[in-house]
Amino acid sequence: MKRGTIFFRNTSVGCLVLNLSTGGAGLAVESDVAIPLAFELEIESEPIRRHCIVAWRLERRLGVTFESDRMQRPASGAV
């Protein structure tokens, strides 16, 4: 498992990446913050930030699909 960070509306939420494929991922969110249907995901040690769409949700677990347009991680690291 890798650590990740979910970004949306000037907010960041930590998560664990439970599984990862070219088309999506399974995530476990570390807090009870309401996660929107679309957000950006940054995964530790990867130079990109992925745009995600929530496919399913169960308590603090999410299944997301990746949109094909990937963004470069900001040069300063976390936003």
Automatic annotation (TrEMBL):
One Pfam annotation reads: PilZ
Q: Which GO terms describe its molecular function?
A: cyclic-di-GMP binding
Indicate the segments forming the PilZ domain, all copies. Answer: 5-70
InterPro entries named among the record's database cross-references: PilZ_domain (IPR009875)
Under what name is this protein listed?
PilZ domain-containing protein
Its source organism is: Bradyrhizobium pachyrhizi
Specify the taxonomic lineage.
Answer: Bacteria, Pseudomonadati, Pseudomonadota, Alphaproteobacteria, Hyphomicrobiales
